[in-house]
């Protein structure tokens, strides 16, 4: 779990990358995913805390980002637009929505918890 000060600190991502088990995901992809999710939580979600968890099952890696306070409802709107491939709408309908199209391309699936507290990214394990 990271507080707001840690989320603003660029070394936080470096620390996570250093501690993250190797071989599950390309490190450049992981860096991009972490930077997008952390930036979105801080800049757009006004997160005071972000808990990041990772677990692997059956060749699929789950990265979970649980945020306090919960994410704004527009996160679901932008995610839905990105999943439909409506890239232009991501930026015109909801300002700052260009990170999700990137995440959609890097992940097998992205889900948002019903209460909008967690963003879950499902990634096929690197072969």
How is this structure best described in words?
Helices cover 44% and strands 24% of the residues. It has a 5-stranded antiparallel β-sheet with strand order 1-2-3-5-4. α3 (27-44) runs antiparallel to α6 (99-106). It is an alpha+beta fold.
SS elements, strand count: 5
Topology as a string of helices (H) and strands (E): EHHHEEHHHEE
**Measured on Cα atoms, how large is the radius of gyration?**
14 Å
- Determine the mean pLDDT: 89
Major pleated sheet: 5 strands, antiparallel
> Could you tell me the strand content as a percent range?
15-25%
In terms of topology, how is this protein built?
Blueprint: E1 2-3, H1 4-8, H2 11-19, H3 27-44, E2 49-57, E3 60-68, H4 74-83, H5 87-92, H6 99-106, E4 109-112, E5 118-124
Helix pairs in contact: 3-6
């Amino acid at each position: 779990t990271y507080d707001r000060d840690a989320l603003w600190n660029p070394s936080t991502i470096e620390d996570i990358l250093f501690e993250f088990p190797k071989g599950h995901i390309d490190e450049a992809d992981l860096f991009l995913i972490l930077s997008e999710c952390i930036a979105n939580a801080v800049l757009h979600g006004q997160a005071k805390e972000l808990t990041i968890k990772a677990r692997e099952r059956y060749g699929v890696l789950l990265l979970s980002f649980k945020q306090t306070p919960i994410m704004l409802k527009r996160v679901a709107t932008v995610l839905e637009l990105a999943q439909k491939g409506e890239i232009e709408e991501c930026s015109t309908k909801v300002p700052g929505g260009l990170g999700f199209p990137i995440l959609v391309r890097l992940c097998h699936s992205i889900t948002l918890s019903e209460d909008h507290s967690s963003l879950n990214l499902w990634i096929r394990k690197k072969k």
